[in-house]
Amino acid sequence: MENTPLLMLGLPKGSLQDSTIKLFGKAGFNISVSSRSYRPSIDDEELDGRFVRAQEVSRYVEHGYFDCGLTGQDWVRENDSDVVEVCSLVYSRASNKRSKWIIAVPAASPVQTVKDLEGKRIATEVVNITRQYLKDNGVNAEVEFSWGATEVKVPDLVDAIVDLTETGNSIRANNLRIVDTLLYTNTVLIANKAAWENPAKRKKIESIAMLLQAALEANSKVGLKLNIEKSKLNDVLADLPALRNPTINRLTDEAWVAIDTIIDEKVVREIIPELKKRGAEGIIEYPLNKVVF
Amino acid sequence: MENTPLLMLGLPKGSLQDSTIKLFGKAGFNISVSSRSYRPSIDDEELDGRFVRAQEVSRYVEHGYFDCGLTGQDWVRENDSDVVEVCSLVYSRASNKRSKWIIAVPAASPVQTVKDLEGKRIATEVVNITRQYLKDNGVNAEVEFSWGATEVKVPDLVDAIVDLTETGNSIRANNLRIVDTLLYTNTVLIANKAAWENPAKRKKIESIAMLLQAALEANSKVGLKLNIEKSKLNDVLADLPALRNPTINRLTDEAWVAIDTIIDEKVVREIIPELKKRGAEGIIEYPLNKVVF
Amino acid sequence: MENTPLLMLGLPKGSLQDSTIKLFGKAGFNISVSSRSYRPSIDDEELDGRFVRAQEVSRYVEHGYFDCGLTGQDWVRENDSDVVEVCSLVYSRASNKRSKWIIAVPAASPVQTVKDLEGKRIATEVVNITRQYLKDNGVNAEVEFSWGATEVKVPDLVDAIVDLTETGNSIRANNLRIVDTLLYTNTVLIANKAAWENPAKRKKIESIAMLLQAALEANSKVGLKLNIEKSKLNDVLADLPALRNPTINRLTDEAWVAIDTIIDEKVVREIIPELKKRGAEGIIEYPLNKVVF
Amino acid sequence: MENTPLLMLGLPKGSLQDSTIKLFGKAGFNISVSSRSYRPSIDDEELDGRFVRAQEVSRYVEHGYFDCGLTGQDWVRENDSDVVEVCSLVYSRASNKRSKWIIAVPAASPVQTVKDLEGKRIATEVVNITRQYLKDNGVNAEVEFSWGATEVKVPDLVDAIVDLTETGNSIRANNLRIVDTLLYTNTVLIANKAAWENPAKRKKIESIAMLLQAALEANSKVGLKLNIEKSKLNDVLADLPALRNPTINRLTDEAWVAIDTIIDEKVVREIIPELKKRGAEGIIEYPLNKVVF
Amino acid sequence: MENTPLLMLGLPKGSLQDSTIKLFGKAGFNISVSSRSYRPSIDDEELDGRFVRAQEVSRYVEHGYFDCGLTGQDWVRENDSDVVEVCSLVYSRASNKRSKWIIAVPAASPVQTVKDLEGKRIATEVVNITRQYLKDNGVNAEVEFSWGATEVKVPDLVDAIVDLTETGNSIRANNLRIVDTLLYTNTVLIANKAAWENPAKRKKIESIAMLLQAALEANSKVGLKLNIEKSKLNDVLADLPALRNPTINRLTDEAWVAIDTIIDEKVVREIIPELKKRGAEGIIEYPLNKVVF
Amino acid sequence: MENTPLLMLGLPKGSLQDSTIKLFGKAGFNISVSSRSYRPSIDDEELDGRFVRAQEVSRYVEHGYFDCGLTGQDWVRENDSDVVEVCSLVYSRASNKRSKWIIAVPAASPVQTVKDLEGKRIATEVVNITRQYLKDNGVNAEVEFSWGATEVKVPDLVDAIVDLTETGNSIRANNLRIVDTLLYTNTVLIANKAAWENPAKRKKIESIAMLLQAALEANSKVGLKLNIEKSKLNDVLADLPALRNPTINRLTDEAWVAIDTIIDEKVVREIIPELKKRGAEGIIEYPLNKVVF
């Protein structure tokens, strides 16, 4: 009764679920899920999908149950999954900060470098990454799997932890010290190798990648329009490189031109006062849904 | 102290209240209500309004207490109200699905067609619509008024129900089977007949109708701008009819033009990859508040 | 470790806190506060700030702890603070209603005018403003400070109250009658006198003022685009002064032009029906983030 | 697969639902309902039940779908149902206040007595009770069915309302005046006439009635224990009839006795100070789950 | 229409409101308030009451609007109210900790004793208490009224604060150091002096005091029953003084006795294992509502 | 500054956390946790504790970091921990249902017995228990660790799952069929082997066990008192064995006796009507906090 969809997507359940649905929505794909369900409804006949734990997405992309999926680079590596990494998707480009897996010890611990972990006990959710890291550093230590809340286990239960941190707040709140960084990670779109070789599937995956990136790009950009005297135009464009390649239109008053361009939202608060000082008029900033350069 | 407003609006209380306030807001009329109040404040001196149950709006429009009002077509018909139907307002054009009143029986019931309801007992919130439907089909059955939660009354309390359904979820959840559809319904703007003959009132009602429709239209449309080589312009416009009649501006680089147009949000995910493939640059999508073609 | 910021901002805690954070965000400054904290984090190295009660901002701006601050005109006057009023910031320009301090009595009270308050007892949060008002009217009355919930104190505890009201709802709900209005008030940006004489600080304060006003201005403005026959252009512009100085572009169909302009959101509901009547096509309204004329 | 239960109970959905489930729980019957369901699960194999609107319970008890049910006396009368009223169950005996249906008009209305309603329009949820009341008073008036929120309909939509009130708060909040009381009402346990004649069913209904009443009784009763000199015992029992038939135990100190009894919670605040004055010691009050005299 | 009640109670609005209503309920007086109302309904015809800010209760008790009231000792003293303090009511006897007003400075401040505050600026909600304290210590300092959130005002806005603390958490969270304690405080029942001289009113106030204290006492006590061999009774009572004066009953088995007594909840976890070891059987602990020794 | 506590407790974080805190509270130990903390505060100087994931409690009890702990029997076995099982604690004795780990397949799967799993893929959170079970049955199958939401993985991702179920609701909701039960489980109190050999620690662990069991026992028991004619006593006790060994007191009326006993709450609804029929008077049921037989 149902058609077979072209692509099966693996979507990350849990902390990334809401932001993933929102990102797809902005990209033009409406994903709706009833609570407790893992089978979403997607308004594109070529797509079907499932929500599974982020930790498990790459396993099922590799096995071919999913044609492509969203997950963290960290879990692709922890699972040692043989998949194609299509593109990175840093959900919040404004901060431009990626999360990282770090090895941490109590602030007062004698451990200063990875070498000092010889013979110690380490708790982590990423047992394989941690074991490889220790091996690369020629260190023997006991690595035990942690079911979560890893940061509270030192110093009582273990000597060190390998945990994920974005802002470092949790590290500081538990009075820990970072010894080393094992891995930077962000969300990635990955594809099954056979699906990537299939032209129809690959074209669809690339379209999805472009639209997701266009939606992310628009988060940190705004549109800016203004009118300025034609005689001042060249100086303004030379002095304000943030304005990039604007669309320039003639106005009925031939001495003035209208500029329409896309700029980083972060520089607006510098640019507007400067433009006003140089005599710009009718300056407006407007929001964007998608940007593709 | 207060002026007499030109128009008195009847607004639907309950499940439609929030979406109605939002729609009027997008159309340019800010309606504010304190909780538990039924007297909203509207920022247009020509308008006053009241929130009443959707079931009762048409009654008070007919009697002239309201000059116009928003309600469902179903309740206009159930009340047999003698009013002018100004326009339909399908709140969610994306789905394009209207609600419908259906007659349903338990999945295992022997009833297969309306004829099989002869002598049966039927519960519904729309007694008049149901009686007329049975009469039209030459069926004698007992119709009783239901205070709500009608769908749980079969099979214990009655033999069949006439109930409203949008998605059919409630029908399935209660293990019912639809026998027939009595009526499709959506929200309508209705007017009192005398008010409609009064030129000043009619002009105002028509303005409101146009603005509500413009706001609804914008829900499914977006603005799209892009730059493309002038030499490719004709082919693009010919191959992508969704771009419709775009505004085309010359740029400082004479070999390129800037396109600005309005398209269905649903086709953006097809159009952007295609435009990119044909060499378009600086593609942006921006949101709209109102659209009037 | 931290640089000394150029400017210290006084921000109003309490009912204005969320809307102030939102306004600064729209102006381009992201203020984040952990709950219960009064030290916000601001993403501009030149700025630091503190949240204090709106009642106290002007006191600390005058004393020089803050270089500038946001508060109500009422509290500047109640505190009799010697500060520079940089600009008004009416958060909700749409309603254009400012709050006011009124003197109210029970609906059934014999008090009709301020003169009838001779010898009575009055509770209020603004003792100084109230005393000055009574003095200006030659009335002797006992004014007592109220910790809040002033409106429920009459008639049991006092004879009259001086209280803040925006919509009058609370006045009506407590069955009170307004005798007189003492003061209209809205939010203002104020500066310390010495800071205002410091060129670097003054330039920064003026930038902030411009961007806050640009963000507020955008709340009540929208972008409007439309196509119209060139032959009708002059009449339309002459008859609809709200369209102001539009950007006018030629279209591929030489008989038509495209208009792009900024107008008050309040007039859109008048303008669109009029434009449609005059043959305009492709009318769209789009949202704005900032507007600087 | 399921046995046919001995009794089918009609339970009131809506505002009474939670307190009904709690009362049955205290009586020893655990009723669990999944949200949105009307088929509860009851931990007694002899019982099955359904939640329906309180307005409809008596109708279905009369028809025999339910053997017994809980509903308001008002709805039994509005529906003119021919059923057995087994016992009253005043859920909150502490206040001893029953709800009442009153006729109300705007505070400023000229209507002073029921006679002044001649020719007026009245909105109510209890059309039959209202019509009978008017007829009994020889008044002709138009009675229209109201879907709810009746109290906001005067004076714009109707001249008077007949509405339910417990505390009168809503009446005052809407600035209404009560003209007359039509009916006092409380919850009742009712039985189908045939079920009542069936000995097995009647025995079960009487057990349920006893346990519900025992649980309600315990709401307003507490246990009281105290020690008192034997010589004062007779005077205390004579002067404090509220102590009723206490259990009296000898203590190791032969000059004292221990008293254990059940009293109205309402009189505890009178009794304890009196007992203390007469030299009682070790006075304790303890809570009860059920009381059967 | 309403009777004049014997006593008018002043009840504390705000943070103490819910616990006060609960305490009166346990004492036998049901107080109900609709949200936003300050006129409660009390189920005792001799009582009426009002909820006002705790800071203002003693003022209106002194003036005679209230006959008695609940408030903090601190506010009685801050207001310098001439009232009778009937009894203390430490709401949480388990912790036995009273709140205190302390003077605090930043952890790094040079201020070590009250003497070091000479010439400093201090913010507080209790201006009078603070001024008296400074005068008693021969210190001149500027005391300013704080509208709240006092703890965040140092060191930026003032040099020191006088603030209320129960656990010291807020002091620590703001990195402050306590210099001195000005005042310990707990809730008190206070009476108007004239009311206290009126025998009928005084008797009622004393009854209320006894019942409130009995309810508080029961929070930390439980009932304990057990059976034990008569031959072991004396040793058990000698070794376990916590059992106090139990009621001892003979059982049908003459070799055993039943004990019923009241003990501190805190010692139950020591007593039960000890009793079990000594051969006690049928040990049960039951809850209490009120205890008067 | 802090004393070393006698015992360190391991407490289960997550779904069992709130009910564990409540159970300890009823047993007489108040455990308070600030949000996000894993170090609770316990009002017993001999105790300290930590909240860790239930899956990890037995590992750290075995290693000696905890002296005793609460966890599920399933995790003791999955971790193959060498600890002492002190007692079972079925949190909800009323239902008397323990949770169980079952192996389930899609309703339509050809798998009928464990033998049919040969060569299949199975997802589970209990990899060791599952591997042992398969080995015991001579079956070779691939077992993969599941991070959660295991029940939605069949049939798409794996052939079968081993998952925990209490009511079977989730099994039915996902249209699965149970093939076999691997393990019944409930909460247990476990002790470290060395701690159990230490007399002081063992005594404390046994006290905690007794008090936790006493609190659990009281959940399903109530106190029952009644008066009955002495002549009927023997028959009543013979016919109603649920009354067990009651305390029987003589009353002032020598023909009657007072009975006080503890019975299962479940039988109250049968016993009370029966007692009433036999002439019992003054029947009351009262609640219990703890019961030790």
From TrEMBL, chains A, B, C, D, E, F:
TM spans (from-to): none
InterPro entries cross-referenced by the UniProt entry: ATP-PRT_HisG_long, ATP_PRibTrfase_cat, ATP_PRibTrfase_HisG, HisG_C, N-reg_PII-like_a/b, N-reg_PII/ATP_PRibTrfase_C
Keyword annotations: Amino-acid biosynthesis, ATP-binding, Cytoplasm, Glycosyltransferase, Histidine biosynthesis, Magnesium, Metal-binding, Nucleotide-binding, Transferase
Domain ATP phosphoribosyltransferase catalytic residue range list: 53-213
Cofactors: Mg(2+)
Catalytically driven reaction(s): 1-(5-phospho-beta-D-ribosyl)-ATP + diphosphate = 5-phospho-alpha-D-ribose 1-diphosphate + ATP
Pathway recorded for this protein: Amino-acid biosynthesis; L-histidine biosynthesis; L-histidine from 5-phospho-alpha-D-ribose 1-diphosphate: step 1/9
Domain Histidine biosynthesis HisG C-terminal: 218-290
Pfam families reported for this sequence: HisG, HisG_C
Compartments reported by the entry: Cytoplasm
Function: Catalyzes the condensation of ATP and 5-phosphoribose 1-diphosphate to form N'-(5'-phosphoribosyl)-ATP (PR-ATP). Has a crucial role in the pathway because the rate of histidine biosynthesis seems to be controlled primarily by regulation of HisG enzymatic activity.
Family assignment from sequence similarity: Belongs to the ATP phosphoribosyltransferase family. Long subfamily.
HAMAP family per UniProt: HisG_Long (MF_00079)
Protein name: ATP phosphoribosyltransferase
